[in-house]
Amino acid sequence: MRLDPEGWIEGIRHVVSPNCDDRPPRESITLLVLHSISLPPREYGGDAVERFFGNRLDPTEHPYYRELAGLKVSAHFFVRRSGEVIQFVSVWRRAWHAGKSCWRGRERCNDFSVGVELEGSDDSPFVAPQYERLHTLQRCLRAAMPLRDVAAHSDIAPQRKTDPGTGFDWHLSLRQLAFS
Fold first, then answer.
1. Is 80 exceeded by the pLDDT of residue 179?
2. Of the candidates 44, 52, 41, which has an alpha carbon nearest to the alpha carbon of residue 88?
3. Of the four listed, 4, 31, 61, 138, which is most buried by Cβ atoms within 10 Å?
4. Is the pLDDT of residue 178 over 70?
5. How many structural domains is the chain composed of?
6. Helices 128-144 + 170-178 axis angle, to 10
7. Burial of 106 (0-12, 13-18, 19+ CB in 10 A)
């Protein structure tokens, strides 16, 4: 994987989301935030996440989608269970993934973070291809920006969020990073 000057990873699929804006001037990107998502919950595959991040999810298609109607969210990346990585927002722009959040005393984590959604749910294990691609993605991003922290969505918004949840193997993920 290689990051181009515009902030897009070469060689992966790009599905541009309108749910982003400019980062504050001179803001360093120091945090990687890990999330989990599946639409409908606990159902994998399909293009519902892509449609959700593109504001094209039909709320009449599934009862759960009604809860999401009108939300405007995105992430920089989505890692499917197959290991496929899809990019929605340039890393140099602010994706709308963290919401009201705080990390080490700094609020508004979207300002200084990159958001990665893993296809899954809070209570189900993630799979080897996801960890492998996440590790490759992290190495690529660390080479291009001063990332120094990795946090769960639940770490930066503990009153609101639980993802990526108990199914995420932090030991494995951090061990992979330590040896890269």
1. no
2. 52
3. 31
4. no
5. 1
6. 40
7. middle
Per-residue model confidence as pLDDT tens digits over 130-140: 999 999 999 99
* Domain residue limits at 7: 2-178
Count the residues in the chain. 180
Residue among 176, 139, 156 at smallest CA distance from 33: 156
Q: Contact, 35 vs 96, CB < 8 A?
A: no
Task: Tell me how far apart the alpha carbons of residues 37 and 73 are, in angstroms, rounded to a whole number.
Answer: 12
pLDDT tens profile 93-128:
999 999 999 999 999 999 999 999 999 999 999 999
CATH number at residue 99: 3.40.80.10
Cα angle 99, 116, 10 (rounded to 5 degrees) comes to 130
Annotated catalytic residues are 117
